[in-house]
Structure formats: C-alpha cells, structure tokens
Write a structure and sequence with these properties.
Blueprint (H helix, E strand, L loop, with lengths): L9 H8 L11 E2 L6 E2 L10 E2 L2 E2 L6
Antiparallel strand pairs: 1-2, 3-4
C-alpha cells in the first residue's frame, strides 16, 4: 500500500487547495453622479463620469 514518505507541510497543502478557495470580489464604490456601483479608479459605465467630469468616447 502506498504511504507518503514525508509529512505534507501546511504551505504545500494550502497551495494545492488554493484553486478551490472562494475568489475575492473587487471592491466596489458608488458613483457620486448616478449612485450606481462601479469599479474604483474607472469611468462609470452608466453615466460616463470620472472624477466629476464627463468622459466622451473618442472615435478611434
């Protein structure tokens, strides 16, 4: 019967289990213009405002 030759360390065990752990969601902030949730440091997808200024998409 197969038996482990060495004890599995806690670090090695936890690294093996890590893909099954719950992924942390990014912190959401509230847009001051439309009060919808948005990712921090990004233009609001609902109202296109960032830092109190409206951002207009450029034609590229």
């Amino acid at each position: 019967m197969a038996v482990p030759k060495r004890k599995t360390s806690k670090a090695r065990r936890d690294k093996r289990r890590s893909p099954n752990m719950k992924k942390a969601l990014p912190g959401l902030s509230i847009c001051p213009q439309c009060h919808e949730p948005k990712l921090p440091h990004r233009v609001c997808p609902n109202c296109n405002y960032y830092d109190g200024k409206e951002i207009v998409a450029s034609e590229a």
